[in-house]
Design brief:
The protein has eight helices and six strands; from the N terminus they run E-H-E-E-E-H-E-H-H-E-H-H-H-H. With 201 residues, it is α/β, with parallel strands linked by helices. It has a six-stranded mixed β-sheet, sandwiched between helices. The chain starts with 5 loop residues before the first strand and ends with a helix.
Length: 201
């Protein structure tokens, strides 16, 4: 057994979805909770909707900022195809929380490749602990369609031993004051969904 375990969270999305902001919020509040934290980001053609991934690792002592292949405890997929693309990064007992929103990448928009119509089904088939989350619908209902990242953070928060007060402080400190209420509503709805999904694993 690993005497110095870490919790490894892999975020995957496309440019403009708030993937990096979500990972930064998690990293900062983990620091506030007293954990050692390492964060690493990889940006594709973010301005063109390219792939964006971010690694957040926290624990009593973290040596490397990148999550070894096949060892992520959590995959937070901001877009369906990106979630499918990264599903192999999960540990065998890892949890995938994947937004059902579809954003065609450049290769699909140009006609070079096709978007798999069964991407969601493939995710569920490959990960027994995968949950598909309609984060975009949650964000719209909360009054801010851009708060899909907060809905996904909320779903993730239900699986982590971090106080709700820290989550609230972390989000409040990183979003414009006028948008906090809608962002928090999206987070709270996502957290409720995440709590419900735990019973299905």
């Amino acid at each position: 057994m690993n005497a110095n375990p870490t919790t490894d969270v892999l975020f995957a999305g496309v440019g403009g979805q708030g993937t990096v902001l979500a990972s930064a919020i998690l990293a900062n509040l983990c620091l506030s909770a007293g954990y050692d934290v390492k964060q690493s980001e990889v940006h594709g053609m973010a301005q063109r909707g390219g792939s964006v991934t971010s690694h957040v690792r926290f624990g009593s002592r973290v040596w490397s900022p990148t999550i070894p292949a096949g060892e992520a405890d959590f995959l937070v997929g901001f877009e369906l195809l990106e979630g499918l693309r990264m599903i192999g990064s999960l540990a065998p007992d890892g949890v995938a929380l994947v937004n059902t929103q579809r954003i065609d990448p450049i290769t699909v928009a140009s006609g070079a490749t096709q978007y798999p119509e069964d991407a969601g089904e493939q995710i569920l088939a490959r990960s027994p602990r995968a949950v598909l989350v309609d984060a975009f619908a949650i964000a719209r209902a909360a009054g801010n369609p851009r708060a899909t990242n907060m809905a996904l953070l909320g779903a993730l928060s239900a699986h982590l031993d971090i106080s709700l007060d820290l989550w609230e402080d972390g989000i409040r400190g990183r979003v414009p004051p006028k948008t906090f209420a809608a962002n928090w509503a999206a987070f709270s709805a996502g957290r409720e969904l995440g709590s419900t999904s735990q019973g299905r694993h």
